[in-house]
Amino acid sequence: MTNEELQKLTEEISIQFFNKTFRHQARFNRRLRTTGGRYLLRSHDIEMNPHLYEAFGIEELIGVIKHELVHYHMHIEGRGYKHGDDDFKYWLHKVGGSRFCQSIPEKRRTESYKYAYLCTDCMQSYKRKRQIDTKRYVCGKCRGKLKQVSLK
Ligand SMILES: [Zn+2]
Ligand SMILES: [Zn+2]
Q1: How do residues 100-119 score in pLDDT, each as one tens digit?
Q2: What spacing in Å lies between the alpha carbon of 83 and ligand 2's midpoint?
Q3: What's the CA angle centered on 48, arms 43 and 53, to 5 degrees?
């Protein structure tokens, strides 16, 4: 996944789950080690750990993007943006964001999956052992269009 794709994904998630626009930058930072992602208070940018995506796939990546977007939107709006704040907790729960941002979760990716798909409407992700025809199959949740994304 490139920085441009990450940027686009972050903007899409922001609209889809927060109904708010993400107006800053999202990029991968290879130097992040145990941190899945971080929100930069000064620049309002979001940095994501590429190892998170490589090791745990798109689902985990989206979970942490949501988490960082909660920091982002709460901070921009002058609301409680820290982990212990009620605003933060409320939105994290509402959008189903990952509880982790400080450290990469221990959970391991199931090795048997070879393909990953993402609904372009609701962002639901699917992992499959076999390839599926995205022209014929739609999202099980919202009937939206699926696109293949790389699992690693
Ligand atoms: Zn956090
Ligand atoms: Zn969907």
Answers
A1: 765 555 555 555 788 899 99
A2: 29
A3: 165
Q: Which of 59, 60, 68, 77 is catalytic?
A: 68
Centroid of ligand 1 to alpha carbon of 84 (angstroms): 10
Structural contact between residues 65 and 13, judged by C-beta atoms closer than 8 angstroms = yes
Residue 133, classified by CB atoms within 10 Å of its CB into exposed (0-12), middle (13-18) or buried (19+), is exposed
Question: What is the Å distance from ligand 1's center to 135 Cα?
Answer: 37
What's the CA angle centered on 140, arms 55 and 123, to 5 degrees?
45
Whether the full predicted model's pTM is greater than 0.85, yes or no, is: no
Ligand nearest 125 Cα, by number?
2
Query: Catalytic: 68?
Result: yes
Q: What are phi and psi of 109, to 5 degrees?
A: -70, 140
Give the burial class of 51: count Cβ atoms within 10 A of its Cβ; 0-12 exposed, 13-18 middle, 19 or more buried. Answer: middle
Q: How far, in Å, from the CA of 145 to the mean position of ligand 2?
A: 7
Quote the pLDDT of residue 113: 80
Determine phi and psi for 92, rounding to 5 degrees.
-60, -45
